[in-house]
Specification:
By secondary structure, the protein is mainly alpha-helical. The chain has one domain (7-234). It contains nine helices and three strands, in the order H-H-E-E-H-E-H-H-H-H-H-H. Helix 6 (130-157) crosses helix 8 (201-213).
Length: 235
């Protein structure tokens, strides 16, 4: 596998239409060479515990589709009396809900302040209840803030390659995260010397969501995960 992972490998799992659990599992196995296990903090191949059905929303019909989700198990974490199983969701899936994260960011792109426009939310998210829409927009806002903070730390820690972008007055959180992702893109090009597309902001929000939703602290930090995915070949 090319390190860091190519954008096409990541992009395939950022939307329902191109998600494949088989390809996602292969990607996880290849990432395990450089990204430590979230449950024990060590480098080792992921072991599949089970595959479970997961419903996700189709906004155009307000109905649900079913995909397979990978559940991993870690013997080392079990020996440490830590949580030893974990569902590994693709980036477009929101934990514990059918509403999709790619739809949430699409909505916030159109409405940067997170204001509620019911018809647009219905078309983009496939959510019928206004309380559900507001709850998910508020959660997405918190994850955007966390993703911004951790991406800023990542850029600061790799100042040889990267520059932390300035934030103009009035710029939304999503717009700033996209600017930070673009700087990560430039830093990757400086580090690896090959043309690359910009990693989607969705990926950074997804990683923030993994840590925010976990029951207690994970074995490694969010910035260490981002560093392993982006800059691990530069050390």
């Amino acid at each position: 596998m090319e390190h860091p992972p190519t954008e096409s490998q990541i992009d395939r799992h950022c939307t329902l239409s191109t998600y494949s659990w088989q390809e996602y599992l292969n990607l996880l196995k290849e990432w395990a060479d450089t990204v430590p296990c979230l449950l024990c903090g060590q480098l080792h191949p992921p072991k599949v515990h089970s595959y479970v059905n997961r419903k996700v929303r189709l906004p155009e019909t307000c109905s649900n589709d079913t995909i397979l989700i990978i559940v991993i198990i870690c013997a080392a974490a079990k020996a440490q009396d830590r949580q030893y199983t974990k569902r590994i969701l693709p980036p477009f899936v929101v934990p514990f809900c059918v509403i999709r994260r790619d739809g949430l960011l699409k909505y916030l792109k159109a409405h940067p302040q997170g204001e509620l426009h019911y018809r647009n939310a219905l078309e983009t998210l496939g959510a019928l209840d206004k309380r559900t829409i507001r709850r998910h927009l508020a959660e997405a806002g918190k994850l955007l803030e966390e993703a911004m903070r951790k991406t800023a730390v990542l850029l600061a820690e790799n100042a040889f390659w990267a520059t932390l972008p300035e934030r103009p007055v009035g710029q939304s959180d999503l717009e700033y995260l996209e600017a930070a992702a673009a700087e990560v893109h430039r830093a990757r090009r400086r580090a690896f010397g090959t043309p690359r597309r910009c990693l989607p902001a969705l990926l950074f929000v997804h990683v923030a969501g993994v840590f925010w939703r976990h029951r207690g602290p994970l074995a490694i930090s969010m910035t260490s995960v981002l560093r392993a995915l982006v800059f691990h070949d530069t050390g």
